[in-house]
Amino acid sequence: MLELLRTAALAGATIAAGLVAGLFFAYSCSVMPGLAATDGRTLVGTMQSINRKILNGWFLSAFLGAVLLIALAAALHLTVRGPVLAWTGLALVLYLATLVITMRRSVPLNDQLDAAGPVDRIAALLSRRA
After folding, report:
1. What is the pTM of this model?
2. How far apart are the C-alpha atoms of 73 and 53, rounded to whole Å?
3. What does each of the 130 residues of the chain score in pLDDT, given as a tens digit?
4. Nearest one of 84, 106, 102 to 10, comparing CA atoms
């Protein structure tokens, strides 16, 4: 039974972390380059909308669930010999780094965009981009 729980935790952690990695990959390869090719009004308005819509149960369950599942998988492998504990420990450290970077860098920038108000009222921000 414990082996089944270990396997389920590893599988869940892999899936959740993979979903988040896929989101980051899609942003860096398509969303952000696509927005960079638009005018300032489109970029700001789109990012404001994305930043509001991404805060939903599906995203948050993967984004926050991944770290919990990785930690659970590591904890369940504390007494097992082999490389799984080292790899899950490393995964936990790297995912925590991802959380810290996101919370300390990206979220404040997103909050600034949101606080700027409706895109029609932020001429200074739009002119800076030009």
Report:
1. 0.85
2. 30
3. 999 999 999 999 999 999 999 999 999 999 999 999 998 889 999 999 999 999 999 999 999 999 999 999 999 999 998 899 999 999 999 999 999 999 999 999 999 989 988 888 876 655 655 5
4. 84
Domain total in the chain: 1
Q: How far is CA 100 from CA 43, 93, 113, 116, in A?
A: 25, 11, 20, 24
Residue 15 lies in domain: 2-129
